[in-house]
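Researcher: Can you fold this with coenzyme A in place?
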Amino acid sequence: MSAEDTTAIKAISALRGLFPPAVAVAARSIALDADAPEAIRRRHRRSGRLCAADALAVLAISPTLREHPAPTWPSDAAGSISHCEDLACAVAAQASQVVALGVDIEAARPLIEGAELVCGDAELDHFDTLPPLPAGNWPLLTFSAKEAFYKCQYAVTGRLLDFRDFEIRFDIHAPATGRFTLRRTRPLPIPDHLDLDIEGRWAADRSHVYTAAWITRPAP
Ligand SMILES: CC(C)(COP(=O)(O)OP(=O)(O)OC[C@H]1O[C@@H](n2cnc3c(N)ncnc32)[C@H](O)[C@@H]1OP(=O)(O)O)[C@@H](O)C(=O)NCCC(=O)NCCS
């Protein structure tokens, strides 16, 4: 098995462990090479779209996605896409079961420069109480978790939010995996209970961090 296959299989397994069973997960590795930035961007976008089609195929939903700013999923599906330098992934679920999904993956490199744009002092104090991650650092995981949260909430509110609008708390359920919750730091033009409604999970290994956010539809 190639290193690329291993990366994608590891990602699928990590993401399956984060989302509820109703959520279909797909991932594809992306070859690292020296193409021009625009070609790389196109390849990443194509890989993300192929993952979305893979995830929708599991649900037997026709994979027609419209673009911009967020992809518009088929009316009977909820979904989310992410890509980082060597990996793309997508998640999808039946809209009858899930209101919104957010997924994010990042290559596990410590976020140092710019960490203050993502994390406040209370969050940095919280990280001091947590064990080290296999790779990367807690600010990187915070960046990823807030992106997953952002994508999930956007499907409901259509609102742009700032990283510092929320403070994160990580719980650790097993080595390098757990739950996260976000608490707003100021009044925001989104429903008050949204941060409570969204479930957040994270996992990390030596190569990537993976974050998941979703809102399930209450049983009728
Ligand atoms: C939209 C955003 C989250 C995407 O970040 P990114 O670094 O390109 O990350 P990813 O590769 O993980 O995700 C890109 C995919 O997200 C999806 N996406 C883009 N905008 C989106 C939105 N508003 N809502 C949901 N998904 C969105 C797209 O599928 C996109 O891939 P594509 O352009 O190839 O189709 C980021 O650019 C952004 O604008 N963030 C806003 C600030 C924020 O996250 N605040 C946190 C507040 S708590």
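Model: Folded with coenzyme A in place. The domain at 3-216 is CATH 3.90.470.20 (Ribosomal Protein L22; Chain A).
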